[in-house]
UniProtKB/TrEMBL annotation:
Co-factor: note: Binds 1 heme b (iron(II)-protoporphyrin IX) group per subunit.
Family: Belongs to the peroxidase family. Ascorbate peroxidase subfamily.
Cofactor(s) listed in the protein's UniProt record: heme b; Ca(2+)
The organism of origin for this protein: Oryza meyeriana var. granulata
Residues annotated as binding heme b: 105
Binding-site residues, substrate: 75
Name assigned to this protein: Plant heme peroxidase family profile domain-containing protein
């Protein structure tokens, strides 16, 4: 069983997806592994129900990248709720599956330039987005600068804190959204439309966590099955950042 850290397991779930097969094909081709998403299980804390999903190996990487094509299919970090849902729907994902996949935003970082307008001049009002909790606005400004005149490169932790500590991947992300503490616009907008029902389900304590992890696992399997490159085309990279040859 392959057991990378949670951040590695989820990096490609955060929608900006580029998968290097060399990392998961070292033992056997066309076999199945499980990526464990439960941090506590690594520490002997138990749990793990609904936290594992199969990852098929035996796939190859393209000999070149298709930046423009990918950019046209993947919603940007500052995309609206409607754009994000539409992008996933075009690939066959339901609202429930999309909301579950966005739970990967509970980890990682995003640069201030992708949400700076929300805390300084939302929709040309010269005021912050009124859907953001006031304390959250101050926290975001503390990271990005008080006047918003920087280059926007400062990173804001995507992690959503619980009881003063970073808890990593998990459904606490949805509870924070209900409290107006979404960092990205599309995150917070999940509470404004029909998707709020799934936000509430996932935020509903231990049972919600279990439902979220199960839904996330199923959605990840579906995501991984989108047009994989197999067989003789392509190649297996030794290093993800460098094509072979």
């Amino acid at each position: 069983m392959l057991r990378p850290d949670s951040a590695t397991s989820l990096r490609f779930a955060a929608v900006s997806l580029i998968l290097c097969t060399a990392n998961i094909c070292t033992e056997a081709r066309r076999s199945s592994y499980a990526l464990l998403l439960d941090d506590e299980e690594e520490d002997g804390g138990g749990g793990g129900d609904g936290s594992a999903y199969p990852v098929l190996t035996g796939r190859t990487d393209s000999t070149r990248s298709f930046y423009d094509e990918v950019g046209a299919r993947i919603p940007s970090p500052n995309a609206t709720y409607a754009v994000t849902l539409d992008a996933f729907a075009r690939r066959g994902f339901t609202e429930r599956e999309t909301v579950a996949l966005l739970g990967a935003h509970s980890i990682g970082k995003v640069q201030c330039r992708f949400f700076r307008d929300r805390i300084y001049n939302f929709a040309g009002t010269r005021k912050p987005d009124d859907t953001i909790d006031a304390d959250m606005v101050e926290e975001m400004r503390a990271v990005c600068g008080s006047d918003g005149d920087g280059d926007g490169a400062a990173p804001m932790e995507m992690g959503y804190y619980r009881q003063g500590r970073e808890v990593g991947f998990g459904a606490h992300y949805y509870a924070k959204l209900l409290g107006g503490r979404g960092i990205l616009r599309s995150d917070q907008q999940l509470t404004a439309g029909s998707t709020v029902r799934w936000v509430r389900v996932y935020a509903s304590g231990a049972h919600g966590e279990e439902v979220f992890r199960e839904d996330f696992a199923h959605a990840m399997v579906k995501l991984a099955a989108l047009e994989p490159l197999t067989g003789s085309p392509g190649h297996v990279r030794i290093r993800c950042s460098k094509p072979v040859g």
